Amino acid sequence: MILDDIIFKKKKQVEMKKIKKTLDDILKEIKNDKDVRNFKEALKAEDISIIAEIKKASPSRGTILDDFDHIKIAKLYEDANIEAISVLTEKNYFKGDDSYINDVKEVTSKPILRKDFIFDEYQIYESKLIGADAVLLIVAVLGDDLKKFYDIAKKIGLDAIVEVHDERELEIALNANVDILGINNRDLKDFRVDLKTTERLIRYVPSGVLLVSESGIKTPDDVKFLKSLGVNAVLIGETFMNIIKNGGKIDDFVIQSKGV
C-alpha cells in the first residue's frame, strides 16, 4: 500500500533527524515560543472556511506544478479570502520541505497547518519548532495511540486536525475527545476519492466538533454541497495548484464558493 511505503521512508528520515537534533535539543529551543496563530478560530468563520494547501506533488499525480514557488503561492493565498494555509512537508511523495512553513509564515498572516505523516512524538515537538500552528494526526497511521499524540499537541499549544476515513477510525477519534475532525474523502489504501465519504460520516459527528472535509474538492459546487451538509471547513490543494498552473485566480473560486 502507498501509505505503508510513505511511512517506511518517513521513519528512516525521522531517525536521521534525531541524530542531528535530539528531542532534548528541540525542547530547549521551543521554550522561546514563536508567533502562534489560532488555527481553530480560523475554522469558525461565519461562512465555510477554506484551508488552502501548498502542494507540489502527490503519489497519485506525481508533480502537479512544475513551476513551483511556495512563497509565491503563499502570497496568492494571502490575497485571497481564505482562512488558513496547509503546507506539505513530506519529501518523497509530495516533494515538501520543513523550511516551507517558516517561509510561508513570514509572508502571510494566516495560521499554518503542517501536513505530514506523524507517527513519532518527536514530530509533534518538531512541528512546533518549525513554526506550525497546527498538525495533522491521521488515525490510519496512529490507531489507538491517537489520544497520546493529540494530548501532546494540545499541551504545547498546537491545534490538530484528526483525520478519519471510515466509521472505525471515527470512533477512535471521538473517544479521544478531539475538537477538529477531518474527514478524508480519499482512501489512503488505494487513493480512490469520493465526496460521499463526508456525507456518510458526518451524521455520526456530535455538535461542537469542527468538521473539515479533505480531498476531491474540485469545484465551487463541491464546496457548496459540503457546506449544505454542515461542514465547517474544506481543505483544497490539487485544485488550487491546477488553477495557478493554468493562470486562473484563486479568489474567483473562493468568491463562487462562498457567494461573496
UniProtKB/TrEMBL annotation:
<comment type="pathway">
    <text>Amino-acid biosynthesis; L-tryptophan biosynthesis; L-tryptophan from chorismate: step 4/5.</text>
</comment>
<dbReference type="GO" id="GO:0004425">
    <property type="term" value="F:indole-3-glycerol-phosphate synthase activity"/>
</dbReference>
<keyword id="KW-0456">Lyase</keyword>
<keyword id="KW-0822">Tryptophan biosynthesis</keyword>
<dbReference type="InterPro" id="IPR045186">
    <property type="entry name" value="Indole-3-glycerol_P_synth"/>
</dbReference>
<dbReference type="GO" id="GO:0000162">
    <property type="term" value="P:L-tryptophan biosynthetic process"/>
</dbReference>
<keyword id="KW-0057">Aromatic amino acid biosynthesis</keyword>
<dbReference type="Pfam" id="PF00218">
    <property type="entry name" value="IGPS"/>
</dbReference>
<dbReference type="GO" id="GO:0004640">
    <property type="term" value="F:phosphoribosylanthranilate isomerase activity"/>
</dbReference>
<dbReference type="InterPro" id="IPR013785">
    <property type="entry name" value="Aldolase_TIM"/>
</dbReference>
<keyword id="KW-0210">Decarboxylase</keyword>
<feature type="domain" description="Indole-3-glycerol phosphate synthase">
    <location>
        <begin position="3"/>
        <end position="242"/>
    </location>
</feature>
<protein>
    <recommendedName>
        <fullName>Indole-3-glycerol phosphate synthase</fullName>
        <ecNumber>4.1.1.48</ecNumber>
    </recommendedName>
</protein>
<keyword id="KW-0028">Amino-acid biosynthesis</keyword>
<dbReference type="InterPro" id="IPR001468">
    <property type="entry name" value="Indole-3-GlycerolPSynthase_CS"/>
</dbReference>
<dbReference type="InterPro" id="IPR013798">
    <property type="entry name" value="Indole-3-glycerol_P_synth_dom"/>
</dbReference>
<dbReference type="InterPro" id="IPR011060">
    <property type="entry name" value="RibuloseP-bd_barrel"/>
</dbReference>
<comment type="similarity">
    <text>Belongs to the TrpC family.</text>
</comment>
